[in-house]
Batch of 2 targets.
Target 1
Amino acid sequence: MSFITHVLVASFHHRNGNQIDYAVPAFDTEQQSTIASKQAGIALPDELAVLPFLCIPDGAHSLSVESEDDGANLVFKTTDVTRSMVQKALVVLSTEPLISSLVVDKLILVTRAFFHQRDFSNLVVVDELYKTLKNTFHSYIPDSDLTTGLKLRETVTTFKGSLLQIFKLLLLQRRVLFFGTNTARLGQTQYGILSLFPGLLRSLCTLKPQDALLPANAESAADLRLASTASHWESLGLPLKLFGKESWFLPFISLHQIDLLTSPDIKAWVFGTSNSIFAVQRGANIDAIINTDTGAIDLINSSLSSAIALGGADRAFIEELVDTVIDSWDYDHDDLNSDQLGDYEGSDNYIRARFEEYTTSLLVTTKHTMMTGSGLDELDDTEDKDLLADFNYAWIELWMETDNYKEWVADPLVIQAIC
């Protein structure tokens, strides 16, 4: 089984607009629908009809690398090249959230080679890229492959204390729009923040967590450590179910998908866009807009202000984390993207480990405290109640109304593990 389904060549056509020129392997469109028959370029399955608009010019998933060149430089010019500049993108479709540098670096190199040959009818490098990726990602994908290249240190220094507010806002399952003009950073930031929730990225994979984290031939220390981690997370009811049928995550949406913001079938969502028109969509009821360029949070729903405000314990946690990341960065000899796989203080793995500790503390404290009553109002003025106050009562009350909390608290395995 390979998680790489297709490699595509997308382009901007002077008459047709965005289109897919080539796919390896070819799509099965023998029974074309009305949508497929009206598409420019090669025919696409209905569920991928919006794909051309995600590839050019916004390669926001880090699985699309776009470039352009002067048409006069081509040694072989096809009939569709009628303008001075040629704009094309190579795109990788995967069933898993593979936006790591392991894929992106290959994609960048092949895109450069594709343009350097100055003949877009020669698709050998595209076919070879598909073969290489298919052979590379054909079985169990370790967590390191899901998180490499997410640049968490950069995210921490961009958002600083606001990062914990975003983390807690996503736990409330609201309508959150990520906006950024740098589409690569837009995708990396969203996936990076999701990687702070223990097991959440793995839960987005088609291969189930309990299967993926323990390969059949697990013998190495790393395999056993992963198995232990999976067992620990499961005992705590992790990952929390932030996304599902009525709660969507789309790291990038095009203008053709703007109706999703007002869809009655979607109660909560996390969407990413580089188009500012989304921010003023009528009836969208956006709760917050997060700017990945500046690190600013625009809290549209002012009723959430008190809930995501950081108390003393929250501020101490995030300030210590930010200081550690900054102190680990040698401004003269280093950059925030180097040594991403290290476990030193301030590394990406360190950041995830600290948020895992925070999440574990939240869950254990909540479960232990709530065993004395069914709601916050029933708690006495005890030390347990003071422990919950560290996470902000206003936020706790809203979290207890979410689907992810109700599903988590109803898990009998969690009760047994924490009792």
Note: Residues 6 and 98 are 13 Å apart (CA to CA).
Target 2
Amino acid sequence: MVRLLTHNMLQCHVRDCTNGFPLRFQNAEVEHAEQEMNTEFLVNMLPRIDWAALRATAHELGIAQLPETMPEDAAESTELLQVLHRVLMETSVKAGEMVCPSCEHVYPIRNGIPNMLLNEDEV
């Protein structure tokens, strides 16, 4: 499954594509599956998350629970970490497409697996 955590780190790699992040979802079939929360993992991931991209993607998928900016006390906020867990770890895209915002290349998602392979002329 394409979790939003994974999505937050994917970008377009088509040759000469200059701004291929964040990929936007199109025709997304979203799935929510409960998982055990790992607070230490979430706290360690906080510095790696592109907050603006995560918030935009979550909003695009109908999840409007994230604040506009990452709070300074995010690592200590149990409430925020629970929301982040739901967004990053329990929300995934089962089918649809990811589209590059720059070159419009389409990466299909089937059975929760994104096809990030490029044709020879795109590398």
Note: The mean pLDDT is 95.
